[in-house]
Amino acid sequence: MIDQPVEDFSLPASGGRTFSLSACRGSTVVLYFYPKDSTPGCTSEARDFRDLHPQFVAAGAIIAGVSRDGLRSHDNFTAKQELPFTLISDSDEMLCNRFAVIRMKSMYGKQVRGIERSTFVIDGNGVLRREWRGVRVAGHAQEVLDFVSHL
After folding, report:
1. pTM for the complete prediction?
2. Residue 78 burial by CB count (10 A; 0-12/13-18/19+): exposed, middle or buried?
3. Residues known to be catalytic
4. How far apart are CA 100 and CA 14, in angstroms?
5. Chunked in runs of 10, what are the mean pLDDT values of the chain (151 residues)?
6. Contact by Cβ (8 Å): 94, 102
């Protein structure tokens, strides 16, 4: 919930790392949830965040992408797209459930359970400051950057 502290979490991440919210204290965290590595929309979104990464860093922000994909998939996606930020593996959906991003979606006429593209901004004190749900990729990373730059 907006203006409420986000409970700490620690999950496996790309590059053999562990991503922990408490380790990011003092920095703004942009946590973006996406459905699947190497799919067209997710690739576009990752590239947009990649291309704006220097401006996010200048604004004191850390970007982390989250999906249910495993670490091997994340590492391949990171390498192929030259992503300068961490991808978190949430294979048991703990973080997805905490942020309520799992939804029933229609894919090729069938109902499937998946991640609704969503982004959350957590300030340096661990407080949720903004959320976007049902994100459309075009222009989204820039909109998030604009918000983060004014925190």
Report:
1. 0.95
2. buried
3. 42
4. 23
5. 95 97 97 96 97 98 98 97 98 96 84 93 97 96 97 88
6. no
